[in-house]
Amino acid sequence: MTAIQVDGLTKSYGDFAAVKGISFDVAPGEIFALLGRNGAGKTTTMEVLAGFQAPDEGTVRVLGLDPARDRSRVRARIGIMLQEAGFFPDLTVAQTVDAWRDFVAAPRPRDETLELTGLAAKATTKVRQLSGGEKRRLDLALAVLSRPDALFLDEPTAGMDPEARRNTWEVIQRLAGQGTTILLTTHYLEEAQRLASSMAIMDQGLIVAGGGMAETLAAETGRVAFELPSSVPPEELPVPVTTMEGRLAVYRLADPDLTARTLLNWASERGLRLRGLEVRTATLEDLFLDLASGEKHEKKATV
Ligand SMILES: Nc1ncnc2c1ncn2[C@@H]1O[C@H](COP(=O)(O)OP(=O)(O)OP(=O)(O)O)[C@@H](O)[C@H]1O
Question: What pTM did the predictor assign?
Answer without folding.
Answer: 0.86
